[in-house]
Amino acid sequence: MNASENNNLHSESFDLKAEIFKYLPFWYWFVLGVIIALTSVTFYLRYQNNVYQSKTIIKLLDDTNSDFKMPTAGVNFFMRSKINIENEKEIIKSNRLLSQVVHELQLYNQFFQEGQIRVSEEYGVEVPVVQWIGNQDDVDVFSGSWQIELDSKGYVWNNDGVKRKYDTVYAFEGLAMKVSAPVKVGNKKVLTLKKSTLEDAVARLKSNIEVGLVGEESELLEISTKGPLIEKNNAVLNTLNAVFDQDGREDRQRVFKKTIDFVNARFEFLFKELDTIESAKANYKRDQKLSFLEGDAGTLLASKTMSFSEYEKAKTQSMLSDIIIKALQDVHENELLPANIGLEEMKVNELVDEYNVIVLEAQKVIENGGLKHPKVLKLIDVQQNLKKNIKSSLLAYQNVLDVKIQSIDAVKDFQENQYANVPYQEKTIRAIERQQKIKETLYLLLLQKREEASINLAITNPSIKIVDEAIANKTTLSPKRSTAYLLAFTLGLLVPFALIFVYYLFDTKIHRKEEIESALDGISVVSEIPFIEDSSKIVMKNDRSVLSESFRIFVANLNYVIPVDTDFSPLIFVTSTVKGEGKTFVASNLALTLSSLGKKVILVGTDLRNPQLHKALNVEKEFKGLVDVLVDKSLDMFSCVEHIVVNDIPLDILHSGSIPPNPTEILANGRMHFVFEELKQHYDYVIVDTAPTLLVADSTIITKYADVTLYLIKANFTEKQILPFINNLKQQNKIQNTSVIFNNVGQNEGYGKGYSYAYQYNYGYGYGYGVNTVIPSKLDKIKYIIRKFMKFKN
Description:
By secondary structure, the chain is of the alpha/beta class. Among the domains are: 3-48 and 479-505, no CATH class; 109-195, no CATH class; 513-793, P-loop containing nucleotide triphosphate hydrolases (Rossmann fold, 3-Layer(aba) Sandwich), CATH 3.40.50. It is 52% helix and 16% strand. The chain is built from 24 helices and 21 strands. The strands form four sheets. An eight-stranded mixed sheet has the order 14-21-20-15-19-16-18-17, sandwiched between helices. It has a six-stranded antiparallel sheet with strand order 3-2-10-5-6-7, with no helix packed on it. β6 (155-157) and β7 (163-164) form a beta hairpin.
């Protein structure tokens, strides 16, 4: 696996434990953040007024079937339609109704009392009633803020020093005002009155009013409001219910009043129309000589029937007369005439009967005496005379019948014409009566509706039913203390976390050993040197401090790095990329640690530009050293070696000497190999403190002589971009047998602190080295945390 694949593998993996350790060492920041947040929210809540919510539940009443109706009432043309809940919700929150509530409760007046902690609003029996007198439009736009000092005898207005009496009208800024004493007047009390405009008061009230259905399928409306005063909230809701109910009543009353006005106006017009129709009917009957159309028609029909009967009878009698006359012409002597054929002329009937008697008598005489009997002749003469009389009577009777028939014909024609006019007369009368009936029906209907409207106006039903009066929830709506504390606790954790996260997001320093191992190909971390807070950073003999223990582990691990086939003492180079990563610190303590183990060690300073060995070991700087050896071949190298004792540990040092103008040329003159070979023959370990590899080329010139190259990386200091540079040095064979020393682990960083604590507790704090074991007290631990905090802050 190459370096890029290895890097990708490490970058894709997520180490939860490492992430926790990344933030855990900053626990005091989280604690501090939580403390600050909780303290802040405590002070915030202390100065906040509690806000409570009150609710009332009402049912909208549909008045479609609630109005009074006459028993004969049919369709109600004035009934309201089904209730539209959404419309009613908007009406409840309308500025018109809320303005009435504001005026009713004088909500444009707000009273405040200033306490030691906060300013709280006052309402109810302990505040005065301030009435503004004047033009209502001027009062509605008037606003201001004043102070009122109250007691049982009166009040002082806005610190003017004048004691005013209650319920007395005073002129004020173009208006007049009257202050009534509170219901409960106690000791002296100072209040601040704030007068808002009507528009502002309505807007403030409207922002707190919420209207909604109790449930999706419910017909009940829930009206709620919120504010710091429960009594005020309840008063607002109850007043709003009353105003809304009264508004609904007035709407229906206006309908009823409009109905009454409309009917009254319509009555005048109907009176005129009915009078016109009735006059037209009377005139028509007078012109047509009608009294009662059905009776007149019946009389006319009876008269017509009688006339027709008389006409038929006369015609029949005339025909019967013709029959008898013809019979007189055709009858022979001594023959009978037809009698009782229906002829009504009695004289003719008598003559016929007399004639038939004479004929019968003659027939009897003929039967007894024959035709020649003298009596027969006499009877025949009588028959002849009777026939003449009968005929003359019939002719006279026919004349009478003819006159009668003519008279009846004339009457019948008149009657037929008169009877033919009856349907048209009936049609006209019915048309007139229909108009009359329509007007009368409309008149009666409107009269009924006027009575219904009058009764409903007097007994107008309520428009709402109050299911629940205004009830306040004793639990505060805001501030939600539990929520506020939870939010503060969360923010107290999140803010430090966010700051640390942003810090790490833009952090380009190396903090963990894993970052080194994932970036370097084939280069291991041989040791980790913890951050040492003490001013003295030099190991001591038989010391059990964190520093000494870490370098003992370093020496133990170093044995696995030194090549086993080395003929002479190992030549160990300590180098780094840039200045300040601790090369001199590590080289000096490594040399002292090896020397404390009884080894013969020499520390060589090859940083010719900025030598620091004398400062690290706190010794005098020698003017002769490596530079002199490299320049002067005749100079004895060992005469330049300084023998010192540091903390009871002997150590030889070959300083860099005087600073030359051309250090690179001096190191490259070929004498370094001779120097190193000589030193390896005389010492067990040769430790070389080099210059930074990135800044100058001095170290890369001489690293070819090294048996082991210890490359310093300083936690929280070395940039991550440096790691590819180390890989390039190894790939170009500019450094040999390289291992990394991870220095300064645990300085002010989360990753390092975890390692720092591990070193402290594993090596220094009770690891178990007998009498030299150091166990810190609680006070020491507190001091340690405070110093850490102050350093991180700086």
